[in-house]
Design goal:
Elements: E1 2-8, E2 17-22, E3 25-32, E4 35-40, E5 54-63, E6 66-77, E7 84-86, E8 91-94, E9 136-141, E10 144-145, E11 147-150, E12 153-158
Antiparallel strand pairs: 1-12, 2-3, 3-4, 4-10, 5-6, 6-7, 7-8, 8-9, 11-12
């Protein structure tokens, strides 16, 4: 395991990030309230610059007009296709009831009254690690690296021989 000094802790205020080059790869260092996390700046979906994406949280609603915003500043969205990743562990999350792109059948009907059918229920069980109710782990996990603070410096550990 090779260790690299990437920044002084004061260079990355809470809620901010810094992109650095470490061992011939681009890495994003994120400060989540004084905890530091490092993600490779390469989306596992299609290699987009994930660490340059928007940082946000999750919005939930159980009733029209009522919203709950959770995990503020902990969710990173890839700027290429919108995949969302948990900055703390790199896991992608999605809502299986409402995928981002869906194909629908189209039919021609003769003058009858059409009734919309409710969407199918999610087939998965509740995940206790889900950042919001109804979310399930996505197929992608962003590459993460441990970050240590030694004095005032941030140290990233990259496995030897990692691509």
């Amino acid at each position: 395991m090779a260790r690299y000094v990437v920044a002084r802790a004061e260079e990355i205020p809470p809620g901010e990030r810094k992109l650095v080059d470490v061992a011939n790869r681009s890495v994003g260092i994120f400060n989540l309230g004084g905890e530091y996390f490092a993600l490779r700046n390469r989306c596992p979906h299609q290699a987009g610059p994930v660490c340059q994406g928007r940082v946000s949280g999750f919005v939930q609603s159980t009733t029209p007009g009522e919203y709950l915003y959770s995990r503020k500043g902990e969710i990173l969205r890839c700027p290429w296709h919108g995949w969302e990743f948990d900055i703390r562990n790199g896991q992608s999350w999605y809502d299986p009831v409402r995928p981002r792109v869906r194909r629908y059948e189209v039919a021609v009907a003769e003058g009858s009254t059409l009734v919309a059918e409710p969407p199918p229920a999610a087939e998965s069980e509740a995940d206790p690690d889900a950042p919001a109710p109804g979310m399930v782990k996505g197929p992608y996990v962003a590459e993460t690296y441990p970050v240590d603070t030694e004095g005032q410096y941030l140290i990233v550990e990259i496995p030897d021989g990692a691509p």
